[in-house]
Amino acid sequence: MHDILTWNPFANPVLPVGDWVADFVRWLVTNYRFVFQAMKAPIDTVLSGVEYGLRSCPPMIFIALVFLFAWQVARLRVAIFVAVAFILIGLIGAWPEAMTTLAIIITSVVVCCVVGIPVGILIAQNDLLQDILRPVLDFLQTIPSFVYLVPIVMLFGIGNVAGVVVTIIYAVSPLIRLTNLGIRQVRHDLVEASNAFGASRWQSLVKVQLPLARPTIMAGISQTIMLSLSMSVIASMISVTGLGQMVLRGIGRLDIALATTGGLGIVLIAMVVDRISNGFGQSSRDRLHKSWIEAGPIGAIRRLFAHTRALYAPVRVAKKVEQPQGGQSM
Length: 330
Known about the structure:
Layout: H1 2-6, H2 17-56, H3 59-73, H4 76-91, H5 95-125, H6 127-142, H7 146-156, H8 160-184, H9 188-196, H10 201-235, H11 243-253, H12 256-280, H13 296-329
Helix pairs in contact: 2-5, 2-7, 2-8, 3-4, 3-13, 4-12, 5-6, 5-8, 5-10, 5-12, 6-8, 7-8, 8-10, 9-10, 10-11, 10-12, 11-12
């Protein structure tokens, strides 16, 4: 009786999942590492180009361009906040690292959008595919982020490119889920009405479903941005440079000043990118029923030219009236 009560069927692992995964990764490294190195090349090209452009641009010119861009896609108040945030990043001494982190985030989010939005659209149109991918997305979204580091280092090496790959794997799941959710929440009667008026399946998707699902998709992009920034500190453990490296060095040296500087830079970049991405999700009602080119600096320039034409229009009309009279007097 005592032996039955003390019997532990889980004393020895029956399913050595860890060993199976390790063997699988070693098999990939041995036979197909060249495939992952080939995948690394385009990411490295894009990341290097973005980082070179950001770090080589003079800070004040960069702030001015970002200010105009934020004003165009969002509001003047958001543009002022963005400019102040980047000025603070420069004043605390984290400008070069912030540009590197921003390049990594931009590259990661762009790749996540290129992959995540089409996959979300596909699983929104196919229930079977959604059932197949749901456990995969659950796995990617819930597994601790540190677990990604070991296989990624074995397949891609260390450095910023490996950090981009880790960030993409970690941050793409919310975008896929929310794209799927946004399209499925579109009212069926609206889709049926578009089909009744002769719209094809592609036209119904582009002109009805995606515009109505845009707020939900933009929420997914915002979640992806936040997860990408949270991954920047963890990815610094595989030699990813930027603000995350500052935080990691501060932790290793117990240097609270260095860790605080890097952490504050990450917070400011997160707020800036989130405000700008929310500007893309604004509807025409949020812009007071103005089109995109009627708002921001482009709209201000258009209004200025229209006002100038209105001022000089009477002068031009008077000159045209006087010219025939002058010809008759001659």
